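Methods — Computational structure assignment.
A single polypeptide chain was analysed. Its primary sequence is given first, followed by the predicted tertiary structure written as structure tokens.
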Amino acid sequence: QLQLAESGGGLVQAGGSLRLSCAASGSIFSINAMAWYRQVPGKQRELVAQITSGGKTNYADSVKGRFTIVGDAGKTVYLEMNSLKPEDTAVYLCNLAIRLYGEGRARDYWGQGTQVTVSS
């Protein structure tokens, strides 16, 4: 079985910073990719940042230069968010492509989501 535990959301003023974390635990054989998405009610879920097992990163244009995704060997992915803007307000969800022991391929797993609210 697998568990993803997210933490780090909260309320912050515009210009502030937050750090989200998502820790995976369970019978993990490998993690192929890690990503953060965000969801605003009434809008499509948006890819914010992604990192592959080889360390290649990809960011949404709206967060480039402000957000940094970091994955560590301890099966945790972080999203460091600086210079936050009110339009960054959303529920942030981690997404990991994980292959478990005994399975032949990786599957997508989602965290429970954490609310980030940026006040103006």
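Note: The first strand starts at residue 2 and ends at 7.
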